[in-house]
Amino acid sequence: MLDKSASPRGAKTGPRLDLQQHLADLEAAGLLVRIDRPINKDTELNPLVRWQFIGGVPEEERRAFLFTNVTDSKGKRYDMPVVVGALASSPAIYALGMGQAVEEIGDAWMRAIANPIPPVAIDNAPCQQVVITGDELRSEGLKCLPVPVSTPGFDAAPYLTATLCVTKDPETGVRNMGTYRAALKAPDRLVVRMVAKEATGAGGYLHWLKYRERGEKMPIAIVVGCAPIVMFTGPQKLAIDVDELAVAGGAAGAPIRMTRCRTVDLDVPADAEIVVEGLIDPEVLEPEAPFGESNGYVALEGYNMPMQVTAITMKRAPVFTQIISQVTPSESSVIKKVAYEPLFLAHLKQNLGVKGIRRVVMHERLTNLRPVIFLQYAAGAPRTEVWRGLHGAATLQSNCGKIVIAVSEDIDPASMDAVLWSLAYRTNPADDVHIVPHRGGVQGAQYLPGKGDSGLLIDATRKRPMPPLALPTREHMEHARKLWEELELPPLNVQAPWHGYTLDDWTDTWEQYARRTVAGDWEQTGKETLLRQRKGLMPETPVRPGFNSED
Predict the structure, then answer these.
(1) Which domain holds residue 294?
(2) What is the pLDDT of residues 145-154, one digit of tens each?
(3) Which of 325, 362, 507, 546 is the right S-S partner for 369, CB 3.0 to 4.6 Å?
(4) Residues 38, 166 share a domain
């Protein structure tokens, strides 16, 4: 099942450029759990893996999970295995995928950005050993993929999450790769969410705007399952005109092999497991979500980008890859954390020359890293340097650093008790707290009252109805906990919150979507949202202005 053509190697000999070889390495290193009993992808799979993030399992004991006997709520059994957590359940798993020791990751990315290696084109790519088009695509298509439900009890459909969405600028031809969620709507239709709240927007969204101006459909290829080193480029937040695949090549120390898609004018990683090719019509938008988001709440229904699938290509024996996201800590937050913290520290130290800065820690549990940042300073660091660092961390990226707190060297910024102690006894709010107006919104800012946002900077040297909490509902988590215990996995140390629950902003329609999804009837929802497609809208236009569930 897994490609073991090369023997496992140490962390410093370079990354694997094939996902299945990476999985073989994980298994050899004791970092992968193989589950051979039947597991329902719609109700059991994600809740089971979720327990290692919210069940008190130490970070170093988290594992990748390979499910070899996947079923769904309709009783279908899939021949294709599903892997979850193989990219970044822990920093050790991320490091193995990058071919570096954990402590060397930050420097390795800096070198890769400075020394890119352009990709190379090949024919007869492994990702095109099987090609699904025509009647087979229209009748089966996406239904042949064992796509798990991420947040059973709330999600309106199964979603592709471990995506590498490839688009290109219609004017310059510069390629962009983004990790965007994609909801299954029909065997040959998805709805992709690639809009961003940042001032600059996501690269794929900027491409979409250009195609909209030109009145042309936008080619897109969604890669599911490729070398970790390629997937990891997304969180680096590179400049729009930078080719991420060249940076991935720089990190790998070798060019990434690429191949031309079968039905759209795009190139994709040739050694990928699965590629979904298609076109996005920028003149039409379709309701998408609810879906559990990484800001800790369920993203409610909004208009997003329908993708007409033109082909699905894959290896002869692919492995389907999924990312655990939603409430943090999660796999996606680990991916961001190991990339963002060195990036911010390098910015403060090298670009701004802040003296005395020792460490940057981004708070992970529930807050999803971006809004809350801690800066650790050497004892005696001048207050001018403390404040330069606070402002620098708050302005590097528009959606990061809503709250930035500076602490001294004796305070562990990863310990909230220590930070609160520092706040209690080392600050005079009149002097040490600054409120900064006119900030860009953080992810999830649409749930805050008003349209603007502000920031809070602290030198500590020293509420309305809301969407549901984005965890599987109680019944699914309780069932998954029983499975966890039956499988004799590590003991759980449960801390609240450990299941999702509603917070008043939830309609009967969305509840029906969620119930259909766990029953495997998500296509009915796709049929209904198809009838609600509208022209003249922008992505994420609310489906209804108030709380009228009939809209």
Answers:
(1) 19-322
(2) 999 999 999 9
(3) 362
(4) yes
